[in-house]
Amino acid sequence: QVTMVPLFIIFKNLGWLNTYLPLTVPALFGHPYFIFMLRQFFLTIPEELSEAARLEGASEWGILWRIILPLTKPAIAVVVLFRFLWTWNDFLGPLIYLKDEALYPLALMIYRLQQTANSMGNTAMAYPHLMAVSTIVALPVIVLFIFAQRTFIEGISVTGLKG
Questions:
Q1: How far apart are CA 57 and CA 118, in angstroms?
Q2: At what angle do helices 73-88 and 123-158 cross, to 10 degrees?
Q3: Contact 112/101 with Cβ under 8 angstroms?
Q4: Furthest-apart CA pair in the chain: how many Å?
Q5: Residue 111 half-sphere exposure, CB side, CA atoms within 13 Å?
Q6: What number does CATH give the domain 4-158?
């Protein structure tokens, strides 16, 4: 939240306000937490693997593509899942950068549904609708987790352990 004002000024100067660009472009770059997590995972990979590949004549790119990246699939799966979850559930960013309600993501649409029900004095009727919509909004995250569960659990258990 500390960076919201400078980012707002940058996005305003770029003409990105009221578009999806301020929501998608920052999500494409590395978050410090993910960089740290991947660094910790890379530290667990034994140097002997790289040395053995060099002795066999592998280039540095070959070592990266054939040895290191296949070993990091669990950590990368965790990063992808967390990034998707954080972007999908973002509330403050869209609230600040989007003014057109037609562009609102689902998290903000739930908020607008609640506001509309409250303004009509119909709060008791709104809760079943809010719960139904909230369940629908949570479905993509649940489906993604189900498909990536094995890799995700493996990444959580391996990341940061020195072996």
A1: 69
A2: 160
A3: yes
A4: 74
A5: 12
A6: 1.10.3720.10
For residue 51, give both structure tokens: 């040395």
Whether residue 86 contacts residue 149, with contact meaning beta carbons closer than 8 Å, is answered with no
Contact 92, 108 (CB under 8 A): no
Chain segment 69-124, per-residue pLDDT in tens: 988 888 888 888 888 888 888 889 999 999 998 999 988 888 888 888 778 776 66
Those residues whose C-beta lies under 8 Å from the C-beta of residue 27, and which sit 6 or more positions away, are 83, 86, 87
In the structure, what pLDDT confidence band is assigned to residue 15 with cuts at 50, 70 and 90? Answer: very high
How many Cβ atoms are within 10 Å of 112's Cβ, its own excluded?
11
Question: Is-contact 90 27, C-beta < 8 A?
Answer: no
Identify the CA nearest to 140 among candidates 102, 97, 106.
106
More confident residue, 125 or 88: 88
| DSSP secondary structure, 90-134, as one string | --HHHHHH---GGG--HHHHHHHHHHHHHHTT-HHHHHHHHHHHH
